[in-house]
């Protein structure tokens, strides 16, 4: 008996599902079965799937992107599902659902793949929304905009700046919610790092504000707070080691800033000389 024969049968199917979530090098595995399940991974590794009260809706194939989304239902008390109620990070989390049958436990197929895009609470449930990986292929590509401010993402392909040349290493002395104190940030005027990036290990944080040594991030970085609360100890002296993070300056997307701060005017992607009024019709252009 094989998966294909059971899947094509009229009434013999007894399906179960495996849910694999991946974010960078972190992997979470769950199963809809009542008990833990193990399977063989690459290189002889053994993969353990944790039982969870999770279910998903019907998988549909449609040309409409919104209708192609998949919704997963979790109990409100599940700690993994509750982590999605906070703002999502900048790193996408992919979801792969495998389908198998109880009669042939060792054989599964990839049933659906996509990425998590949001979550909401409904009564005693958490509804996790995911969109198919193929939905990105049906979207219109990003087109250049005719605007006064630069249309390029800082340190991106159009901008051309290498962020590796702009990192400054600093010592983190305080973390309070979304606020981080880095004394080295005070070496530059206020706003210098607004719109920039803070890097701690593999984690990246978007800097939304900068005043003196204080940096405001778009979201809380629990890994940075944990490292500061329990710092590593120097084995020779017994003193706590400083918690280091890298910060890169931001840009307000104006031509003057591009030239004075980065010397990158040749790659500026805006059109600062756009007239305020349409010379043909007299209407406003902005």
Instruction: Write down how many β-strands occur, each being a DSSP E stretch of 2 or more residues.
Output: 16
User: Which percent band covers the strand fraction?
Assistant: 35-45%
Strand-and-helix sequence, N→C? HEEEEEEHEEEEEEEEEHEH
Low-confidence stretches: none
Q: Helix tally?
A: 4
Rg (CA only): 25 Å
Q: Strand count, sense and closure of the main sheet?
A: 9 strands, mixed
Estimated structural class: mainly beta
Anisotropy-based shape: globular
Helix content: under 10%
User: How many domain modules?
Assistant: 2
CATH topology of the largest domain: Pnp Oxidase, Chain A
Q: What is the CATH class designation of the largest domain?
A: Mainly Beta
CATH architecture identity of the largest domain:
Roll
- End-to-end separation in angstroms reads 67 Å
Mean pLDDT over all positions: 85
Q: Largest beta sheet: what is the strand line-up?
A: 3-4-2-1-7-8-9-6-5
